Amino acid sequence: MFEKILIANRGEIAVRIIRTCKELGIRTVAVYSEADVNSMHVQMADEAICIGRAPSTDSYLRIDRLISAAEIADVDAIHPGYGFLSENAHFADVCESCNIKFIGPSARAMNALVDKAASRTLAKKAGVPTPPGSDGVVETEADALATAKKIGYPVLIKAVAGGGGRGMRIAHNDISLIKGYHTARGEAEKAFGNSGVYIEKYFENPHHIEVQILGDPRGNIVHLGERDCSIQRRHQKLIEETPSPLLETRFKGLRKAMGKAAIRIAEAAQYTNAGTVEFLVDDQGKFYFLEVNKRIQVEHPVTEEVTGVDLVRMQILVAMGEPMKLSQSEIHFRGHAIECRINAEDPYDGFRPSPGRIEMYYAPGGRGVRVDSHVYAGYTIPPHYDSMIGKLIAYGKDRREALDRMNRALGEFMITGIKTTAPFEQTILQDPDFRRGVYSTGFIEQLMRRGAQ
Hints:
By secondary structure, the chain is α+β, with helices and mostly antiparallel strands.
């Protein structure tokens, strides 16, 4: 058993990890920037070490400072959470070279899935369908134009190291392709330090469905079902649920096929620990591999609710070398869970960020309601990081009960001093099409257009 773990992250995911460590009897070390001195994870951890100024490039992205903190605190392992350095193979390598266990996939597995282009290649070798597109990185305008001509417009230009919609542009003709190609490259270089992009066929209003996987060092790999993440704005997820209404109603046979495909990709990469295999599903029921998120996901709680599996606990046990003791036949799915990301944004002013001091805070509760957050009354949300301040999760025996509980819980959520996305998410939950499970990745844009008319 690990005796002490450093959490190389902040916010709600740091709090989430600390809670599981406490249940396992493991001491925790929080790291924080100067802007996060009053954050809840700093107060909850057994020890806390400041690692720099507010910008993440001066703190949470500084491998040298994280390792120094780990050595000073004499920890056994580092949990990277999500974002920041969670998918950085070099960080995993440095941890191992310092005799500190990295709680995540091995550097070898991350290098096999180093970017989206490499992941596409591996998926093809594993016999998993991928969207028509370029073979690897597109180096020139001429190559971009040739690829678009081959697969047909519209196309999607995507940063190989991207995420969260950054370094991504849609092109419907040659002019918009050339402009989007250079814009995506510049944005990717600024955001990820890697200007590489590739091109694939763009599907209008598909469904975004991902599969949770777990692997241990002995080669055992299982999947824990799917999550439907189609409710998103500009490729940023807002609401997630499991099981997927699409797979429950229209394409029931797809769940098994997608689960097997996710495992084939994980096996090809010799994947260990937790990860997520993301897919697009079109209206004909065909699915296509997108990428592998080589870390715990923001939306992991919905999977925990329907399977009863503590994914962070499993991450820690697997990192210690424990076999999963969990076969595919032992994983059972019960009920329905839905998650709303509560962001400090004003949805009625172009989703403008709303940092600042929280004057009053009341979190909803009651049966089947879970809140994962790091904020409290009197806490000041810094402007330097992602705007998500918490996650609201509702569970029910079926989708209708889960939706009714979520609607009730959103109505109970009280936060003053800042704007949040909670009222807008309640509008989504009350929409007749969403209630019927009839939605795709274009749902929010369509809803906003209807509201503007």
